[in-house]
Amino acid sequence: MEFEAVIGMEVHVELDTRSKIFCACSTQFDALPNTNVCPVCLGLPGSMPVLNRAAVDASVAAGLALHCTISRWSKMDRKNYFYPDMAKNYQISQYDLPLCQNGWLDVILDGQTRRIGITRAHMEEDTARNVHGIGAGESGVDYNRAGVPLLEIVTEPDIRSADEAYA
User: The domain containing residue 128 runs over which residues?
Assistant: First the structure.
């Protein structure tokens, strides 16, 4: 019996912005733990997110590079879940009405060009980072990464091999 690989991918791309997606906190990677946090990225009651324009601009640029249709209107939703790396128990995401959709990317493998469909590319916030080994049997959470802007790119199941996925 022979099988055909049918692969779709979901890729999270960290957007290169100076501040987080919904607040003015720095996105500096190597800062001391829990120093780039505020009521918004911790989801404290009464805090109000404000969308980072640079994240939108970078997402639109990526969408255009992927030959996507850019939506003239979009919205954010709360994706509810409970994990230690998300203190507010929800992630703000554009899942329902993505900024970029119906695009494509050509990949070349062994001299052959294959077109991979892009279902969607939408903005969302990153989670915090679990830190293990800080003491004997201890773990912690560094919330500096919480709220860093991401672009989630979802392909159609057009990929037929690991080499093609790598290309």
Answer: 10-166
